[in-house]
Write a structure and sequence with these properties.
Length: 248
C-alpha cells in the first residue's frame, strides 16, 4: 500500500509539473511575442518609446508575466529533479542547477524590462535629461534584456541536453522525447551563440520553434502522469537491496 501511495504521489507531482510547464510556456510566449515583439522596434528609440508609453499597462503586465514565469519555473525545476533523480542523481542535480541559473539570468534581465519604462517616466529628476537621450537609454535597456535572454537560453539549453541524456540512459521518459530535448539544445545554443558572437548575422525566429514544440511535448508527457515509468524510480535501489539480502 505504501509503494502504491508513492507511485500515486509521483504521478500527481508529474501532473502538477505539467500544469506549471504550461503556465511557463504561456507566460513566456505572452511576454516575448505578444508584448515585447509588438511594442519594440529595433533601432528606432522614438517609435519604441511611444509604443511603450501608449500601452504602458500592457508593457507592465508583460513584465509581471516574466515574474510569474520564473516563479513557476523554479518550482518546475525542483519537480523535474525529484521525478528523474533516480536516473542519475548527479546528472539530475546538474540539470536542475543549469535551469536555476537560467532563471537567475532571466530575473536580472527582467529588471531591464522595467528600467526602460522608468527612464520614460515623468519624474522631476528625469525631466532634467533630454527626452531623446532617455529614449535611447530606454531602448538600450531593452537591448540588455535581450542579451540576458540569450545568455539564459544557453544555460537552459544545457539543462535540456542533460535532461534528454538522463531520460535516454535511464528509460524514465520515452526515447523520442529524450532525442527531441537534445536536438532542442542545439537549436537554442545556435540561436544564442549567433546573437552573442555574430550579431551581424540574422537568424529567423523559426529556429526556436522546435524548442517550443519539444517543451510542449514534455509538458504533455508530464500531464499524462509522466513517469509512466514511475516504478523505474525505485529500480536503482533494488539491486543493492537484493545484494544485501544475499550477503545475509
Amino acid at each position: 500500500m505504501h509503494e502504491h501511495d508513492s507511485f500515486t504521489g509521483l504521478r500527481r507531482e508529474a501532473r502538477v509539473g505539467g500544469l506549471l510547464y504550461l503556465v511557463v510556456i504561456a507566460t513566456a510566449f505572452f511576454a516575448e511575442m505578444f508584448v515585447r515583439s509588438s511594442l519594440i522596434i529595433p533601432k528606432d528609440a522614438v517609435a519604441t518609446a511611444n509604443n511603450i508609453l501608449s500601452a504602458e499597462r500592457l508593457y507592465r503586465v508583460g513584465g509581471f508575466a516574466d515574474i510569474l514565469n520564473l516563479s513557476c519555473d523554479v518550482a518546475l525545476a525542483i519537480i523535474l529533479y525529484h521525478l528523474l533523480r533516480a536516473g542519475g542523481q548527479v546528472f539530475a542535480l546538474t540539470a536542475t542547477a543549469f535551469r536555476l541559473v537560467a532563471d537567475g539570468c532571466l530575473a536580472v534581465a527582467t529588471f531591464f524590462h522595467f528600467a526602460s519604462l522608468t527612464l520614460l517616466g515623468s519624474s522631476h529628476a528625469l525631466t532634467m535629461i533630454p527626452l531623446a537621450e532617455r529614449q535611447a537609454l530606454a531602448l538600450n535597456m531593452i537591448t540588455i534584456h535581450t542579451l540576458g535572454y540569450n545568455v539564459s537560453l544557453l544555460f537552459f539549453g544545457v539543462h535540456l541536453l542533460l535532461l534528454g541524456w538522463l531520460g535516454l540512459r535511464s528509460g524514465l521518459m520515452p526515447r523520442w522525447l529524450g532525442v527531441l530535448l537534445i536536438l532542442t539544445f542545439f537549436c537554442y545554443s545556435l540561436n544564442s551563440v549567433v546573437h552573442l558572437v555574430f550579431p551581424e548575422v540574422h537568424l529567423s525566429d523559426f529556429i526556436l520553434l522546435p524548442g517550443l514544440l519539444t517543451e510542449l511535448a514534455l509538458a504533455t508527457w508530464l500531464l499524462a502522469g509522466g513517469v509512466a515509468a514511475a516504478r523505474s524510480l525505485f529500480r536503482p535501489w533494488q539491486p543493492q537491496a537484493q545484494h544485501t539480502r544475499g550477503r545475509g
